[in-house]
## 1
Amino acid sequence: MSDFTFLQDQLDALAQQGLARSLRTVVSAQGPVIRLADEPGEKILFCSNNYLSLAADPRIGHAVAEAVRTWGYGAAASRLVSGTMELHRRLEHRFAAWLGKEAALLFSSGFAANEALLRTLPERGDLVLLDRMDHASLIDGATAGSARFRRYDRNDGSRLERLLAREGPRRRYIVTESVFSMDGDTPDLARLVELKRRHDAILILDEAHAIGCLGPTGAGLAEAAGLLDEIDIVVAPLGKALAASGAIVAGPRVVIDYLVNRARAFIYTTAPPPAHCAAVLAAMDIVQTEPERRHRLARNTERLRGRLAEMGLSAPGRMHIVPILLGSADRAVKISRDLLDRGYFVAAIRPPTVPPGTARLRVSVQADHTDDQIDGLCDALHKIVREEGCAGSL
Ligand SMILES: *Cc1c(COP(=O)(O)O)cnc(C)c1O
């Protein structure tokens, strides 16, 4: 056996800082209530991205079973060889129409889509501007690509403008998420659109936490803001509210054709199973015809945020991701553990996922949470913080 103690040493160092991570196994279907391996009883789940509670919806399972009967399971090749099947095309057409774009392309994951987009499209001589809290996949794509990139703070009104005004770059890209995954807030999309127009930039919007959740038909933040036409390229990851996995990139036909020819994460990988597309199509049917799920999500978010405010716990943002800032990683881990013992599963989010000193509980709301479940979480949190004796620091 080779000697891997150099890795063990690093893991031990992480553990000492309270930053070691390990996997927890869920032994039930996903929903507002789950069971965990090695933990007694049921846990009320407040840290999934299953915002519309569709992950175990029987209609989606039924659509998958039907598709498997017709199409079998595997796609058996990459999309560019013999793996493009009718269901891939149907899903892409339907997404393009929903998002009001000329064309759309399915990727195996949101990570792959973002990485591919930012690695492939911007060229040497271009400038890519990323929000400081943009997802790791966007940062990795920009890092791997040949354009220069800079990061801006969405709360610093002038930095992005200064970066855009610089002479030199051939093309400028502005890249933002629509609901920030760790902060639960949204960018000022109207301002980004205005800047994009003024500086002739290309605007890329990652709707990971908004697709299905916001907008009259659930098409996301851009739809909610009436700005869908102004967004050049929309990324719609399918693993959150849409309850599957993979991601759609939607935009001008030429962008999609270019990705088909150049995006390594699209070209050199096996096509997703056709039944997977059937699952997403079924989820889209539900999202588009049951706006009441979005309304319940918004109502539950308001209830949770209202209760936290009453308790004096500050949770920035307005959206269904509710960050409760706790400072140190150790503290976040301890409170998360205490909550689990009381029957609530809320994972602690630590550096490097969030900046040092801003470890937090990232509470995420689902459409199918009940009032009792939400109130119960707040009461448990209140007790824990009171026992801890430092409510003032929250
Ligand atoms: C989850 C997420 C992704 C990655 O999507 P996956 O399909 O899970 O790989 C990309 N962007 C944001 C903002 C995300 O939250």
Note: The chain is about 40% helix and 15% strand.
## 2
Amino acid sequence: MVRRRAARARAVLTPPTGPDGPEGRFTSPLRGERAAARLGLALAASFGAAFATGLISHFMQHPPGWAQWPSRPVNLYRVTQGVHVIGGLATLPLLAAKLWTVYPRLLRRPPVRSAADAGYRAVVFLLVGGALFQAVTGVLNISYWYAFPFPFTTAHYWTSYVLIGALLVHAAREWPAARRAVMAGPGDAVDRRGFLLTVAGASGAVALATAGEAFPPLARLAVLAPRRPGTGPQGVPVNTSAAGAGVLAAARDPAWRLTVTGRVRREVVLSLDDLRALPARTARLPIACVEGWSADADWEGVRLRDVLRLAGVDDDARVRVESLQTWGDYRASRVAPAHWRDPLTLLALRLNGEPLHPDHGFPCRLIAPNRPGVLQTKWVHRLVVE
Ligand SMILES: Nc1nc2c(c(=O)[nH]1)N[C@H]1C(S)=C(S)[C@@H](COP(=O)(O)O)O[C@H]1N2
Ligand SMILES: [Mo]
């Protein structure tokens, strides 16, 4: 049985034309099974890591009712999303090398040999198409180039299931042949080793040129990163500016108030001076954007839980934090109990020793530990207890 499966896998992998010898185009060391298998293993590992960290990001932003994310460790999301984006970018050279290695097989004639073969070719089509789709949409998204007509997060999320499903089928199917290829003697390995080292070097170079967007010691190398720590007002990058969000006038208006409403024992309305008069707390916390960049900062403000308790809220309440923005996906976010009860969760009034810059959320913005950047709502003006 095992032997028959191996034979079948071999039939799929064996070139349809040309000799089986080293001079055949398909069996050159670089286009051979061994290079393809090694690259496949590396890709499987990085797709697995991207899938796991992607699910973390998705479910942090869309928490199922029965689960709650912890607010600690403070840097958890920063790390998982850094792995997702920087790891994803470092995967691109691997993907390109793998496709280069196997494309004669993808384009072979005749394309389909039997019904089972047709089914498997469809899986390979989903695998290659899914991988390219994730790569292209991911790169465009972190480059702020929204060239596609569909919502990025929804498409990237659902495609990941298709991709991982196809990868599992492909891995199960190719495993025996790949194992044989990797276990076989060294053969003419010199070229192949050089090729694989080049690909690994390209992956490492991409990682080095981007990792500084989340890891400050490498910031100076981050020439490919769209955002770098230390840049932007008050030393912290900005995604949406106050002017871009259309809130500049409302944020500067002296009539600005913070209202705490909803399921509260008494509605509370606070001016900026009222907030400043509450006990001031500090926290060193990162902004960790879903696009992979992150930056540590010193925040000062009042604890969200202190403000909520002024209004009288139940311990298991959820809170909707609303900004002055009247449009846009990030104009509000929900805070679950684990986060609002955390003493590090602040309504920040100051950043790195100065009053918040308008682009960072003046007069008041949410900052909480272990939370995606999209949920760190700026220009807050209403807390609605649900
Ligand atoms: N109201 C509002 N809050 C927002 C956003 C927004 O567009 N509108 N962008 C979010 C995103 S995507 C990130 S990464 C952080 C960035 O915060 P910063 O601009 O202060 O660095 O703010 C978040 N808060
Ligand atoms: Mo973000």
Note: The pocket of MTE (ligand 1) is lined by residues 236-240, 245, 287, 289, 323, 325, 328, 330-331, 360-361, 373-374, 376-379 (CB under 6 Å).
## 3
Amino acid sequence: MDDQYHFPLETFMSREKFDRIKQFSKDLETPCLILDLDVIKSNYESLRTNLPFAKVFYAVKANPEDEVVALLRDLGSNFDVATRYELDQLLRLGVSPDRMSFGNTIKKEKDIAYFYEKGVRLFVTDSPMDLDKISRAAPGSRVFIRLLTEGLGADWPLSRKFGCHPDLARQLIKMAVRFGLEPYGISFHPGSQQRDVGQWSTALTTVGQLFRWAKEEAGVTLKMINMGGGFPANYVEPTDSIQQYAEDIKRFLDNTFKSEWPEEVIIEPGRSMAGDAGVIVSEIVNIAKKSVHDRYPWVFLDIGKFGGLIETLDEAIKYPLYFEGQGKPVSIIIAGPTCDSMDILYEKWTYTMPEKTKIGERVYILTTGAYTKSYSSIYFNGFPPLASHILK
Ligand SMILES: *Cc1c(COP(=O)(O)O)cnc(C)c1O
């Protein structure tokens, strides 16, 4: 039956696991997100095994559920924190401040002061004014400088807005010394769901030049390199395995630093840690054509862009959809339930559903553990934020 669809379920999860999720969600109100903590645990362990030299700073924004944070806390992870609200959550869950970095380049001075007061001593920066704020509000702290990347090859680029050009990075290293801060390292984010591992190579080459420049020209020994997130989750378009990414990245580090690797290498995975751990259970609200001659029916789900699937903007992230109905595959347009015409999920990329699919049936949206619930809107059209449940 499965090979009638444009992908087999087994590409993304075992039939056994699917049946467990289906059974677990049988009586739950849709839409809802089911999170499997075992998957997060094994993703964390796989990163640790494949990149044993790297310290993991989980990017909390990807999935900030208490249970996820608590699990990673117990596994020994560190955390990339973006706001004082995330900081408060982590402190409430007993994560010590020496396991956190303030990784947002856009921050108020009073929030920097708050992080400092709570004991955080590791801050990102990418501009003189921000560095100035850090020097006042977090005196003596470690700072790492984020480089601009292009995000080429990434499904969700994170480019332009963050980071600075290497010339400015040099100035910031010198400024940090003048300000009494410790210029600790360099960071970059290659772009989220980065399918071209070569992007790490490009960025690392620049980082290597900065390390050498700092030592020779500024008398500063940088100690840390932070390679950001970017590791993939399993969506419709396939990627290399984590093993392959790890092997390549290790080679790039060897090429750049030879036998003199930096003391500390950090990664900040979000998507690759939580994405595969989630399945959104959704229901078909309507199936309709706009005219009798239309080729493709519109399939309206009870979740859309505002309910947590904002990463379908420009069809950037293509979630695997699993329909259970019978019949040969027919092409469809997929849209959400809100009264906003931008709430269309997929129109250009052709998804299919089994011909006999009916209104009221469930659709399983796979690989939705990252950047879904945390993105869902509060009561637009009265729809509540996306509910989530931990798979038991
Ligand atoms: C969002 C974010 C991450 C996580 O990136 P993924 O591609 O989801 O792994 C890491 N670092 C920073 C600074 C981020 O903003």
Note: The chain has two domains: 9-34+275-390, 103-269.
## 4
Amino acid sequence: MKTNSLITRRKAIVTGLSGGGGLVLSGCSRELPPTYGNILRMGDVLTYTAHRTLLPGQSLAREYSRKDISSFPGIGTTNPAEPGARFYDATHGPVYERLREYAFTEWRLLIEGRVAQPGSYSLADLKRFHMRTQITRHTCEEGWSAIGEWTGVPLSLLLEVAGVLPSARFVSFYQFDDIADSIDMVDALHPQTILAYGMNGRDLSIPHGAPVRLRMEKQLGYKSVKYLRRIVVTNEFDDLGKSGLIQNGWSWYAGI
Ligand SMILES: Nc1nc2c(c(=O)[nH]1)N[C@H]1C(S)=C(S)[C@@H](COP(=O)(O)O)O[C@H]1N2
Ligand SMILES: [Mo]
């Protein structure tokens, strides 16, 4: 981002070099992004290639202070259990309703695919990991932005515990509404990519994605998917069919 100071970038680079995190990117940063055989997608390809080539992979999005926190609307799905909502999922909507009734104590986040230790994590499990809090600006493709404070577990930590296999290249996310999405390993291992369970010092509310949502600060707001239920690590790019962004007419890569 243009607003990043040189110092922030330098710090990011230094942290990247010295950080003890055991995960190493398997050279995916220089590869071509997935193509969709559609000339209109050329713009995405150019942005993706430019970002992955010109920017240090781990440069940080700007972080703000508490006094900058603004009002923050709930957008898109604001309750996955509401039949008739645009992205209502008739299978998982009712499951969400029951989980909510039990204050998400029965909720589990599944991690599977190209990992040595597939598993599932409760909210309490996630809260036992080292947490990260960040105050960032959310930019929606519809033209508004808002600043909020997010608390959660870095996705990189969870991937490390799950033992991501060296061939892994993408991480897919499945939600309680009919939306699925994926990001590449550069974004998945970014220090500001977190599984957030807190917002502005409280538990994440239903409109903002309870119990856990993704916060992805290097792409537009729609990549920060809400209402997570399942994470799948893959070797190959998957457009995720009718639930994915591409078949719904959105850019898969929305870097800012
Ligand atoms: N599961 C799910 N995640 C989602 C959406 C959605 O409709 N469903 N909307 C996206 C869009 S377009 C935006 S701008 C943000 C809005 O997050 P908020 O409701 O916390 O403001 O969530 C994103 N994540
Ligand atoms: Mo959005």
Note: Residues 75, 140-142, 221-222 surround molybdenum atom (ligand 2) (CB under 6 Å).
